[in-house]
């Protein structure tokens, strides 16, 4: 649905990361993990298109939260919003994670891809499926710390990796998958993953090796978010057809995707 | 003031409650938008382009943003005429608004066949013919750039259609009045213009074209001044109704096209930015007319003084 | 890193220290900018277009802003070749940068005459030929849209010129490779593209075209994707050097054109927004090359992989 | 010259009017009445072009002030600037009023056209030519009051007109020209005028009737401000040629202009 939301609060988390709270009760009410919203970041033409963001939290008071990294013009505009400003949202969009398929989950996040992972973790915790592993990776300590703060607040400990070794394991999230398997009953475990495309491809490959079901939440350029423009295509494995990420996804089973034809 | 202004227009026999439509390929098959805006307020919906057989479309990336523009190379992905009629038309038939099918083909004959099928399809009120597709027989050069081919396609469509036929012109030509005149002379009931302008973007970090197809079509506010010029030129050249398209975001934009000579307009890219654009424009037209004491929208057509 | 990257380019015999020039009509005769930016840092200056006789230009309004674009109908106002040589060239001669004169005419012969005069003019290093002007003999249709006329003008210019001749192509054509090939076959030393795209704006309150001339030319970021596509297409079609023009505001924009196949670029509308754009781009090119370990700018030309 | 100026202060005066102070010592130093600056109102493309503004005041501390009305995207962007923000200025541009030609002046302003008139009034006062009449007009009292406040502060009383009669004389500035002539030695008096084009045309016609020299500061669309684009043409009276407002003006002798060919 279309909702004009008022900004309730906006916090700069450092490392170009921000969290914004929007009063959007109708969308918040029905949001689920990996649902996303299209945000109109400018009333004018710069930038022209809306930008897609995963829903990070939806609270009972009607607040919808987004966690985002400032990259270009759209996110710069959002970072400049102030309490009481109004912003146009369309959502909740897409097909959320299917979290009812397995008893246990390994959740894997890269950078700001942690947004839908946090919502998934909260959901799983609320539904008492406590054998959760969360693996979160980023480039540096400065980037990872703001991303895992909210997990700490709900008593979930994340296994963290940084590329430069400034916090947690030095390396990539995939390095921590094998260690995690020792803590899980792998016959009843699934992987849930969101992050940069090369990372998701690597996780998908590891999951295939291990024979575990893996759901990924993909990112592509999007113009409409509602399956009207057909711009968000990704190749279906073993077919000449395409999925549309905004409608068929953003969540896909990793083995449905033709990873080699996904440009990062 | 007082009275509500009259917005009804007639497009070559197709009668609309108001001149605001959605452009093909930017409004899905209508249903996608039904929860976001009141589609019954629109003059008409133009459906996503359909071909005889389904098409998978181009490899991604298919879209990218440019300055005040959208570049796309969807590659005319569509479900094909059969599934269109079976799965999409039932919803469209129930809408309180007129429905225009948009067709495309690889060969001239495809167009005739599509017209014949759609003419017997309850729920479709007119046919818009997209001739900006690559012409397979002529080595990929678009049908829409050659006046003779435009005339040929128009004739085939008219012969096979019981519905009004609207020819949608390509802007990628030296002189738009040549293709416009060719279509008009061959019996087109109306013309719509413009389709996207061929364009490109390059990713300097990856040293690659941004689009999987390398080349795409530019739409959005960036192209509005070009579209407006073409509508104005075409209005001087032909006598059939014109539908103005290109970068329309507001009622003021729509009025520019009507003043340039269009009978109606289509909203494309703007649907992605605000799904309620068409509705807002219908409202804005009335407001403008009230403010200027214009009783009937048809009085505004071509009404610029030089 | 370490070494400063090599920016020198050769445009059909015209050797430039770097590939960044200013576009005709957007940098006056150079002097206007001399207090605002270090013009010696530029690869070349292209002067405002000149004709045999002075021209008063079009009635105002002559410019208006559009979404990410500038619409102009200056009407080629200029001081004429005599005053150009007497009043403008002395300043240009003293600059530490190369100078390209830009010429225009009503008749094919005008172009030859202008080339002959400029060839003997100390301080001018090359001639850029604007063929986007209305052709008086052919009823106002631009010279630049007909390949035969393009060839004819190119031949006349080459016969009369001792300097490199750059033909500046019009984008208002169905197939830019036809005019490009015609100019190349007729001996052009280089091509520059694109000139402005014909366009229009309407003032809905006054119900008038915004421009006094009704129709004008669109420039600025809005047209960049179209310009880039045309440069890329032309690079596949001809072997002579290309100068990419259209909406260039940043070094990244310039690199897009070079990757598409341009040997050099021109900055137009951006000069009005930031008079230091050219200088900034020269700096930005070096930075990009250092970051990517590119030693010589010529390695980037056409270097996109698909 | 090109100067990146920092915002010192910005004040909303009501009725969509604003005054902004910019630290721009190099431009401020050499500014004279009716000089203008081109302001880059956005670092991006919306709006694309710089906007021209008369210099309202230039102070010895290096501050340049602009008085402006919020109309469209450019002035909206300027109205949102905050202290310490940076903005690109080019100036001072154009040919200023020639205030040395007469002993006495009648200064006539319409709306925000008062900006260069104020600077001219200060200049004349400083040079001890005190027989000054200032006539200032606007649509309503709410619009005229903020425009004449600064005149009061330097002890210049303005004769004011409003279209709706809510302040001063009900009518147009031209109505007050004849009364003003009784206070002046007309053989040594000149008119200086800035405002909407139809107003300036009317003042020019009255000045011609009275046989007094009249200088006007014109407005046109401008792309460059430095006589490079040739966009700012106005027809020269009795010629097929054009002036360029940014270079030959903005100040012209009223009898040099072909008023009928100036579109408002
Ligand atoms: C389903 C989905 C959920 C997302 N969730 C989040 C999130 O929770 N937090 C977050 O910070 N980011 C998220 N993103 C990415 C976010 O949409 C982009 O970072 C944002 O669009 C960048 O816009 P920009 O104008 O700031 O930068 P730009 O300069 O436009 O782009 C910067 C980079 O982002 C990519 N990008 C730009 N626009 C889009 C788009 N419409 N869709 C996808 N990629 C784009 C570009 O290719 C470019 O590499 C999500 C994307 C998708 C598709
Ligand atoms: C020499 C000169 C001095 C000026 N001094 C002042 C001043 O001191 N205070 C003030 O408030 N305004 C002044 N103006 C007018 C000011 O430039 C416009 O109000 C401003 O450009 C509007 O921009 P916008 O984006 O807010 O509105 P837009 O939506 O762009 O335009 C609103 C209106 O202003 C006109 N306009 C837009 N751009 C320009 C331009 N570049 N040049 C001239 N007119 C334009 C348009 O035709 C339109 O009618 C001056 C103009 C000139 C030429
Ligand atoms: C994503 C996208 C898909 C499109 N698909 C079609 C199509 O299938 N058939 C067609 O005739 N035009 C198609 N168009 C062109 C539009 O209908 C319209 O002519 C063009 O976008 C210009 O209008 P705009 O600037 O308002 O978007 C498409 C445009 C876009 C942006
Ligand atoms: C105000 C203005 C005047 C121009 N005058 C000329 C000219 O005299 N000769 C010419 O060949 N091109 C002229 N051009 C076209 C530019 O040189 C350039 O090709 C075009 O503006 C596209 O580049 P841009 O988008 O960087 O501005 C002019 C453009 C503008 C905006
Ligand atoms: S973003 Fe438009 S179809 Fe998915
Ligand atoms: S504004 Fe460019 S010449 Fe005057």
Write the layout of secondary structure elements.
The complex is a heterotetramer, with two copies of chain A (264 residues) and two copies of chain B (306 residues).
Chain A: E1 2-14, E2 17-23, H1 25-29, E3 36-39, E4 51-54, E5 57-58, E6 63-69, H2 73-79, E7 86-93, E8 104-110, H3 114-126, E9 132-138, H4 141-153, E10 158-162, E11 169-170, H5 177-181, E12 189-194, H6 197-210, E13 214-217, E14 233-235, E15 242-244, E16 251-253
Helix pairs in contact in A: 3-4
Chain B: E1 9-11, E2 14-16, E3 20-22, E4 44-46, E5 63-66, E6 69-72, H1 80-94, E7 98-103, H2 108-119, E8 126-130, H3 147-160, E9 165-168, H4 176-185, E10 190-193, E11 197-200, E12 202-203, E13 208-209, E14 215-219, H5 224-237, E15 242-245, H6 251-260, E16 264-267, H7 270-273, H8 277-292
Parallel strand pairs in B: 3-4, 3-16, 4-7, 7-8, 8-9, 9-10, 10-15, 15-16
Antiparallel strand pairs in B: 1-2, 5-6, 6-14, 11-14, 12-13
Helix pairs in contact in B: 2-3, 3-4, 4-5, 5-6, 6-8
The complex binds flavin-adenine dinucleotide (FAD) (2 copies), flavin mononucleotide (2 copies) and FE2/S2 (inorganic) cluster (2 copies).
Care to give the gist of this entry?
The complex is a heterotetramer, with two copies of chain A (264 residues) and two copies of chain B (306 residues). Chain A is α/β, with parallel strands linked by helices and 264 residues long.
Structural class of chain B: alpha/beta
CATH topology of chain B: TIM Barrel
Large-scale geometry of chain A: globular
Order of helices and strands of chain A: EEHEEEEHEEHEHEEHEHEEEE
Question: Under the CATH scheme, which class of chain B?
Answer: Alpha Beta
N- and C-termini, Cα separation of chain B? 27 Å
Distance between the termini of chain A: 30 Å
What small ligands are held by the chains? flavin-adenine dinucleotide, flavin mononucleotide, FE2/S2 (inorganic) cluster
What structural class do the secondary elements of chain A suggest? alpha/beta
What percent of residues of chain B adopt helix (DSSP H or I)?
Answer: 25-40%
Outline the low-pLDDT stretches of chain A: none
Summed up, the helix count of chain B is 8
The whole-number mean of residue pLDDT values of chain B reads: 94
């Amino acid at each position: 649905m279309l909702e004009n939301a008022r900004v309730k609060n906006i916090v700069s988390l450092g490392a170009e990361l921000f969290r914004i709270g929007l009063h959007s009760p109708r969308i918040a009410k029905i949001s689920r993990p990996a649902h996303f919203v299209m945000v109109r970041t400018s009333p004018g033409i710069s930038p022209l298109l809306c930008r897609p963001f995963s829903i990070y939290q939806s609270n009972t008071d009607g607040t919808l939260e987004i966690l985002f990294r400032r990259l270009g013009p759209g996110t710069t505009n959002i970072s400049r919003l102030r309490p009481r400003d109004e912003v146009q949202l369309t959502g909740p969009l897409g097909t959320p994670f299917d979290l009812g398929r397995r008893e246990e989950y390994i959740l894997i996040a890269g950078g700001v891809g942690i947004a839908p992972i946090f919502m998934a973790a909260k959901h799983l915790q609320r539904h008492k499926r406590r054998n959760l592993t969360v693996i979160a990776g980023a480039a540096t300590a400065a980037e990872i710390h703001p991303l895992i703060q909210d997990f700490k607040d709900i008593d979930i400990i994340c296994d963290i990796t940084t590329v430069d070794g400034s916090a947690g394991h030095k390396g990539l999230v995939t390095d921590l998958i094998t260690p995690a398997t020792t803590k899980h009953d792998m016959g009843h475990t699934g992987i849930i993953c969101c992050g940069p495309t090369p990372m998701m491809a690597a996780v998908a490959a590891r999951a295939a090796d291990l024979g575990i079901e893996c759901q990924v939440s993909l990112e592509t350029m999007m113009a409409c978010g509602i399956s009207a423009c057909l711009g968000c295509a990704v190749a279906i494995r073993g077919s000449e057809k395409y999925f549309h990420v905004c409608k068929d996804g953003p969540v896909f089973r990793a083995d449905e995707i033709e990873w080699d034809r996904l440009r990062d | 003031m007082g009275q509500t202004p009259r917005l009804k227009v007639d497009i070559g026999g197709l009668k609309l409650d108001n001149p605001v439509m959605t452009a093909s390929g930017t409004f899905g098959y209508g249903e996608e938008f039904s929860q976001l805006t009141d589609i019954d307020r629109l003059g008409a919906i133009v459906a996503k382009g359909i071909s005889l057989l389904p098409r998978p479309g181009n490899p991604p990336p298919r879209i990218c943003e440019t300055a005040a523009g959208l570049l796309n190379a969807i590659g005319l992905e569509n479900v094909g005429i059969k599934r269109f009629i079976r799965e999409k038309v039932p919803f469209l038939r129930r809408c309180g608004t007129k429905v225009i099918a948009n067709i495309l083909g690889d060969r001239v004959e495809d167009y005739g066949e599509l017209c014949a099928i759609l003419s017997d399809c309850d729920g479709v009120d007119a046919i818009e013919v997209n001739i900006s597709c690559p012409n397979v027989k002529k080595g990929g050069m678009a049908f829409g750039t050659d006046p003779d081919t435009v005339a040929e396609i128009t004739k085939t469509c008219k012969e096979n259609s019981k519905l009004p036929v609207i020819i949608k012109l390509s802007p990628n030509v030296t002189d738009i009045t040549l293709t416009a005149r060719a279509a008009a002379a061959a019996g087109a009931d109306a013309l719509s213009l413009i389709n996207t302008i061929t364009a490109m973007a390059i990713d300097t970090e990856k040293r690659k074209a941004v689009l999987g197809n390398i080349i795409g079509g530019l739409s959005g506010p960036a192209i509005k001044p070009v579209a407006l010029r073409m509508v104005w030129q075409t209005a001087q050249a032909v006598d059939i109704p014109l539908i103005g398209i290109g970068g329309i975001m507001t009622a003021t934009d729509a009025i520019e096209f009507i003043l340039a000579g269009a009978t109606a307009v289509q909203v494309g890219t703007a649907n992605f930015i605000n799904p309620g654009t068409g509705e807002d424009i219908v409202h804005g037209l009335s407001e403008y007319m009230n403010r200027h004491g214009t009783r009937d929208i048809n009085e505004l057509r071509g009404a610029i003084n030089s």
